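Go through the following before class.
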Amino acid sequence: MASSVLFDAPGPKTVARHRVYTIVSLVAILALVAYAVKRLADAAQFEYALWEPFITPKYLTAILQAWGDTLMMAVLSVLGAVVFGLVFGVGKLSDHRPARWGSWLMVEFFRAVPVIMLMIFCFYAIYGDMAIARGAFWSVVTALTFYNGAVLAEVFRAGVNAVPRGQAEAAYAIGMRKTQVMNIVLLPQAVKIMIPAIISQCVVAVKDTSLILIVFGVGLTSIAKQLPLSFQNIVPTTLVVTACYVVTNLALMLLANFVQRRFVGEKKVLQVSMVADVGAHDESASAV
């Protein structure tokens, strides 16, 4: 097996020391979990009456519907973010200065604005005439589209830059225009590199749907806001809603790992991440 280029392989003493660290860490984590469970038990948070709604068909159906609404918000926002990211990511590679600087301004603005501020703005300024639940739903979708689209714009730009330069040079040599080179040569090769990052951004979108709770509960946040009012079970409800988010995100991470192994190696994904970060810093510095 080839040795890593990043660091030397650990020796027997280091391996043994790392195993000790791992065991100590696991014991500490288990102790914290046991302590938390004991505190919950002492506070009577495991009583049947508090957990009964989660095995009652009526409330279980409501939780599944809310879970579906959360997934729908995440899916719609990611689809919009992919389109946003593709347009402005390619725009940042344009040879035309107005398009390049306009794309840079859009991307940097929506990367800098907090998501929750975007949600509040959309809720009151754009969807204020809608029904509250519907307005909150589309506020989440719109805000996450802009924020995640700004992040994916860097991913698209970095993915294109990660394609070997010789591919573009060969395409130009046979007479292709830049649009043809981008659409026919660069983007198809870059897609494989970008897929794991796009799926990882889905995880961010799923988690960020909960931020609308500060304005109005929609999706799983509606369960977290409404169920405790009837059963006074805020801790069990929080644990169940958290479990829904965790299960969803674990499924997405497993999908991302599968796609990464299936279509692209870890080194290429690391290269895209580094190019995205370095490119963002370089362009910010050049703009100043």
Q: What stands out?
A: Residues 65-287 form a domain with the MetI-like fold fold (CATH 1.10.3720.10). Residues 266-288 have pLDDT under 50 and may be disordered. The CA atoms of residues 65 and 250 lie 20 Å apart.
